Amino acid sequence: MTWSKVLTYNESLHLARCLASLREVATGILVVDSFSTDDTMEIAGAHDARVVQRAWVNYATQFNWALTQVDAETDWVLRLDADDYLTPDLIAEIRARLPTLGPEVDGVHCGRRMTFLRQPIRHGGLFPVRVLRLFRYGRGECEHRWMDEHIKVAGSTVEFAGELIDDNLQSLTWWTEKHNRYASREAVDLLNLEYGFMPHDTVASLRGGQQAGVKRWLKERVYTRLPGGLRAFAYFFYRYVIRLGFLDGQAGAAFHVLQGFWYRYLVDAKVAEVKRAMRERGWDVRTAIGEVLGIRL
């Protein structure tokens, strides 16, 4: 039995496409909604999804709570975001290979490709990324982080060749507003690395060669030790020049500049703003995060 979990808030633009792609691989679909005000609930019901509602704190909290709502007889859990959908190749691979996996396998990695402004992103050293989206029920959970969360499992994993597509259809204004909020959350995680005000949960590891673990290790052990601001430019230069991001054309240029530089610089600027408030007002880090970023820990 495979259950898919989708977290939603005002996802009427994407949800039908997402749920339709799950029809052939999911025994059941659980939609955990954060009190949407559009047609999200109706769309989920029309696709025979089970819908529950819960107030949003962060992705990790919402996802791990959703695990408690899944049928206890579930074998596998498939994580999918509302703006994702499975390709036919991945659907066929899940149907053919998942039942053959031995009990020692706890998770499945697949490829994820992204589009931006309706154009596929093919360069920059990022795509396709390998993501763990399928895991055995009871053997995996989401990292307890405010941003950039991954699924972690204790046992072995296997690789599927099929891919899912991350294709958000919203406007650029919506995207920048969302990433402004994301920057605040990522600033919390960076500040926690320095001040240790909450438990540090991470998949960072060089062992096993898993892409998510290696990237997180480089981010936490190398990137975060570089000067703020400068590291954002260095990361953009690596993506856009060294890893040929410029070949992605006009839409790709916007993506690499905004996601690879502007967003990273914004995170650093928010970290600096919190630290300045701590110095000037005498606040502890938790208070400064609440007052400056509006995030209550």
Automatic annotation (TrEMBL):
Transmembrane segments: none annotated. SUPFAM superfamilies: Nucleotide-diphospho-sugar transferases (SSF53448). The keyword Transferase applies. Residues 7-103 form the Glycosyltransferase 2-like domain. This is SPBc2 prophage-derived glycosyltransferase SunS. Signal peptide: none annotated. The gene is sunS. Its EC number is 2.4.1.-. Gene3D superfamilies: Spore Coat Polysaccharide Biosynthesis Protein SpsA, Chain A. Pfam families: Glycos_transf_2 (PF00535). Keywords: Glycosyltransferase, Transferase. InterPro entries: Glyco_trans_2-like, Nucleotide-diphossugar_trans. It comes from Thiorhodovibrio winogradskyi. GO terms for molecular function: glycosyltransferase activity. Belongs to the glycosyltransferase 2 family. WaaE/KdtX subfamily.
